[in-house]
Each structure stands twice: as C-alpha cells, then as structure tokens.
Model the fold of this input.
Amino acid sequence: MIRREFLKGIGLVGLSLSASTFVSAKEHDKKSLLQQTKLTGYIKSNGKGIANISVTDGHLVVFTDRNGFYSFYANSKARFVNFSIPSGYKIPHQDSIAQFYSIINLSAENHQTDFNLEKSITNDEKHGFVVWADTQIQNQKDVDLLIQHSAPDLKNLTTTYPKDYLHGIGCGDLVWDNFSLFPDYKKAISFSELPFFNVIGNHDMDLNARTDEGSSQTFESHFGPTYYSYNRGQIHYIVLDDVFFVGVQKKYIGYITETQLSWLEQDIKNVKAGSTIVVSLHIPTYTNQHKRNNAQEEMGGTVTNRQRLYDILQNYKVHIMSGHTHFNEVIINKNITEHVHGTVCGAWWTGNICGDGTPNGYGVYEVDGDNINWYYKATGKDKSHQMRIYPAGKQTDFPTEACINVWNYDKNWQINCFADGKAIGNPVQKMALDPLANENLLGKDLPSIRGWVEPNLTDHLFFIKVPQNTKILAVKAVDGFGNIYEESISV
Done:
C-alpha cells in the first residue's frame, strides 16, 4: 500500500515536470539554435574580397564566397574563429605573433570579424622557416641566455635570406611552467622580426585545470588557437596540439583528440593529393625510442594514436616538426619524414649541448615549390658546423675507435674518413653516448645548475679505427642535398 501510494506520487511529480520543464526535441533544437553565436565577416585585400579561403571555429571548416564573405554558427565549445592564411599573401603579425584569429564572444548573438591581408611582393613559391623547439625558460637566467644568445643568432640568420623569406615555428615548451615569462619569449622572437606560429607544449599547459579542455587557456590568451593551418607557396602547414592533459598535475600523454582529427580531415579536403604538408606538434609522433634508455618514456613518450594521423595524411608528402625530447633525430619512412629537433635550450640551459651532443640550436628549412631542404643551425656557429670529431679513447664504450657525431644525420647522408689525406673508408653507425655530453652531464653532481639532467643514448654516432701514427683525421660528410661538410682533428 505504501509502495503503491509512493509510485503514484512519483507519477504525479513526473507529470508535473513534463508539463512545466520538459521540452520536445524540436523545441530543444530550436532553442539551441537561438543560443548559438553566428560567425560572420569578410576576408579582403585592398578592399577586394578573397574567395575560397577556409575559415573555422576549430570544429567546422567553411569557405569564403566570391566576395570573401563567410557565415556559420559557432560550436558551443569553440573559442576562436580563424582562417587559413592563403599562399601569395604576407603573414600578418604583431610583434612576431601571427594574427589569423579572433576570440569569439559566445554570449553574443552575432560575432563579426573581418580580416585584411596584404599581397606578397615576391613569389612565395620559394620561402623558408625555422623551428625553435623547447626554449623552455624558467627563470631570469634562462631568459638572459635566450635573449642574449639565441635571439641574436636567429636575427643574424635572417640577414642571410631575402626579406619576407622566413617565418618561424615555436615548437612547444616555450616556457617551463612559468607563464609570467611568456612576454619574455615574445620579446626574444620579436628580435627576429619574423612572424611566428606557436605550438603548445606540456610545459605551456595550465596544470590546475580539471581536464585537457581547460589546460590551454593561458597559452591561448597569448598565442591563439592550439590547432590551425596556413599556406605558403605550394606548402600547406598544419599545427596540432598533441599534449593531452589527464587532469593530474604534470601528467600527460601524447595523443591527438578526435575533435582535431575530424577538423583535420575537413582542413585538408581541398589540398591536392601528392602535395607537401608540414605538420608541427610538440611530442614526436615517433622516435627510435626502442633503441634508447627509458628517458624518453619518462618525458611523455610519443603520440599513442599516431597511426590515425598517418592514415589521414597517407596521400601526401609529409614533414612532421616536433621537439620535446631534447635530442635531434631525422626519421624518413615512406611518405613521412619526422624531424625531432635539438633544442634552443639544449639540456635545459645547462650548457651548450643537448643530451645527445647536438649543439643548442634550431632547424632551418628552405622550400622551393613542393621540395624542402634542411639543415641544423647551432647557436653561435656557422651553418657549416654539422659534426664533431673525437679521437680514440674519448668514447669509453668503444675506446679504440675515433668517434664522430653527425647530429642531423639521416639515411641519405654519406660519411667518409681520411687519415693524413688517405681514404680509410666509412665509419660504422653505433648506439652510444656522446663523449662531450657524457663529460658534462653524466652523474648526480653534473651539471651543477640542474643535476638531474643526464646524457641520452643516440644513434647518430659513427666509429672508425684510425691507423697508427696518423697525424690528421679528416671527415667529409655529404647530406641528402649534396651539401658537403668537412671537419678534421689532430690525432
């Protein structure tokens, strides 16, 4: 009896709720539509609209009409409306931060943003870009090193190329969890006067966020969306956020969300199959980690769902730009070349080398049509500085052999050795520790600044036995583009 009366009461309450608060699906859809913000605007150059420019809120991709006009409703979770800068136009920027987005006012019924572009004076079929990975400044001393050494080096590099030839990519970990230093990073890149597109890294995330969705808010307030695209010449550029925050301080994985993958499928829909795409992200999609110690796994590993990304990009020639590991590596596999960059900060500003012996520095890329050439630029060194030679005895695992570190090596390089001018053959590639990194970083007392830094095993070391009584050991290395680099030491 009591149960029957209780159920009867519940039924009456349910009936009351249905009448007063429940709405039909049709009414709900109508109500939701009325609450959506309509995004509108024009993309123009010299007062004339530019047709067929992709515009997105990070969820849906639309294209401007013949008048340069776009119009669509923003997703309820969207934060920005941004467009993919087309080829043939200058990259708009303010103090080197690329300007291609507007923050959406989701409380407004309409959000209108017009974008204006300036035509390039020169043909951008030939252009270039630099990749600054892991500037990773944590304190004023780090800032001073970045501004006094790295920034002037990049500025000097720009003078060796035509005006408007280069742009920059900040490949994540711009700071080291100290967001008050974002302005110092901006100051450093502004010395170059290059437009920079920036990638979020694991040390650029809000660690007090509840979920991954909220972990990028501070970064976004400085640099805009964390995934987007742009174009120069024949190259389509894509930036992705592959650092997935799991809601526990300093815990993350390498992972690309479905929202981004869905957006990416739309973004490249009009990119011609077989053309070249450059993808920039922070955590590498792949490295030769199975050959190394556990250091990389401790730093977040690689992108767990990388195959999903590869599947989407399978019909293109792809170059992936990454950082994160603080060692340098170039992996060429089928249609994908991954460039894992040695870092601007080296081994966390503890000296002038990374854990694999790669000098502090950055990648430089030269584009001609859909072809890309590249080299590694060591900070404070000429571009010809591409290797370091050690005499026998310096590398303790192979003490009877001379050791050569060719940090930007890939499978298309050729390396030859000469003893007093006489060819003695090709050195053998082996996995080992770089002697200089071993000397400066190995052990709990080294380096004195940050004692937890350790050297990394690397496979861009080469070994050869040198004939007795040799006075001069010379090495000639030729990269995949025919550039010749030569170094020698007295034995």
